[in-house]
Amino acid sequence: MTPTLVRRHLPSSTPPGSRARDWAEIQERMLVPLYEAVYERLEVGSGTRLLSLGCGSGLALLMAAGRGARVCGVDRDGRRLELARERLLPEGGHGDDGTRLGLGGPETVLDPAGPCFNLITAFDPLFCAGPGPRGLAEAISRAAACAEHGSPVVLAGWGPQERCAASGALRVAARLADPMCAPARWRPSGRDDLENLARQAGLAPDGSGRVSCPYGYADMTSAVRGLLSTGAFDAAARATDEEQVTKELIEALHPYLRGDGTVWMPNVFRYLIARV
């Protein structure tokens, strides 16, 4: 890509609050096919009591509530969580239906007097509840301890690398964050990564599926803002600078820029259903 075209799509530096809004308005919807497939398979409805780990700005919770489920969610990004509150708790506090949102781990939404959960989800493959996979396994284990025996726990991750166009962009993030590790440090979920995570959390795998979740953007600027909002590029920006990250991200996205100016990146996500 020529320098002129790169400069054309360079967005101005955005503060963290704007990144959260970009997530809610641009990026979060990319996982809607995943949410729908899981909810349909598990027949989420009025009898469902859902806890979402890494609930983001609440779109998946809103969709479950629309099916009649009682929902709770936690996230470690306070700005995203504020947007979730705007969607789910417009009056503030807790919802009359038991809706709770907490900053941190699952313990922030537990109600000793209330019913335990019968569905737990961790949809966002970039969600990190602690220092690495071990922290996530511990968070899942704590949440599972508050669920009914036999309840499903849904974990999600990237599909095969050759079927995930976003992998090229994420390799840019990994390379710039730590050049000594080379581009191969990042990879989509391996074949058994979700199963291993479930076992680390003390759960028994019980089925899986794959869902097409293309990343579609109105233009290159929206694509850059959406991907930067995931947080996957934060370490790269700290190691270099945001302009360098944006420049290389645009170059990685250029093969997916279509004639009408839209950006289309086919991806496949995989989910695992485990049991408490």
UniProtKB/TrEMBL annotation:
Keywords for the protein's UniProt record, in alphabetical order: Methyltransferase, Transferase
Gene Ontology biological process terms in this record: methylation
Compositionally biased intervals (Basic residues): 1-10
Keyword Membrane: no
Signal peptide interval: none
Domain of life the protein comes from: Bacteria
InterPro entries: SAM-dependent_MTases_sf
UniProt GO MF annotations: methyltransferase activity
Key word Ribosomal protein present: no
Annotated spans, Disordered: 1-20
Protein name: SAM-dependent methyltransferase
UniProt source species: Streptomyces olivoverticillatus
Lineage start: Bacteria, Bacillati, Actinomycetota, Actinomycetes, Kitasatosporales
